[in-house]
Specification:
Layout lengths: L1 E3 L2 E2 L13 E2 L5 E5 L6 E6 L2 E5 L5 E6 L5 E9 L5 E9 L6 E2 L6 E7 L6 E6 L5 E6 L7 E2 L15
Antiparallel strand pairs: 1-2, 3-4, 4-5, 5-6, 7-8, 8-9, 9-10, 11-12, 12-13, 13-14
């Protein structure tokens, strides 16, 4: 479909879950959550190829600056039958998945820092508030960036 001025739209061959697509640092592909429980899919455009990276509940991926890894959120079942969203890191191919955050609240909307040293994310507390936190990609040094009551969400880094 041509949108004018030489811009062409391509219909994604996956069904996004409502999260935003994450462009790779080299601009050659995107990663998007693929439907309820479908996991993450990578879509490259020349030629159009879809690669399933994960299965299950996974969404809101962000690329590492070097394009080698992805951070994303995934639901983790709890003993009481509820589910917490936690952060995971995987290689850009979807292999070597490791859990980054370990609760006690929902951790969502990760954003990798431009230098690769930190991952910022939203932590939702049990009282309906939220704060911006950061953590090293190896899972160490987690700390709250925002303070006080209220809601802070969708972190973004300045270049």
């Amino acid at each position: 479909m041509t949108l004018g001025s030489g811009v062409t739209a391509v219909r994604l061959p996956v069904t996004p879950t409502g999260d935003r697509p994450a462009w790779s640092p080299d601009g050659r592909e995107i990663v998007v959550g693929d439907g309820d429980g479908g996991g993450l899919a990578a879509v490259s455009f020349d030629p159009l190829i879809v690669t399933r990276l994960t299965t299950g509940d996974a969404s809101f991926a962000a690329w590492s600056p070097d394009g080698r890894e992805l951070v994303f959120e995934r639901g983790v079942p709890q003993p009481d039958g509820t589910e917490l969203h936690q952060l995971f890191v995987a290689s850009a191919t979807g292999s070597s998945i490791r859990q980054l955050t370990l609760g006690p609240s929902d951790d969502e909307f990760p954003a990798w820092s431009p230098d690769g040293a930190w991952i910022a994310f939203t932590r939702i507390d049990g009282a309906g508030g939220s704060a911006i936190w950061r953590i090293r990609p190896d899972g160490t040094a987690a700390s709250e960036i925002t303070a006080g009551p209220g809601r802070a969400a969708w972190p973004s880094w300045s270049h």
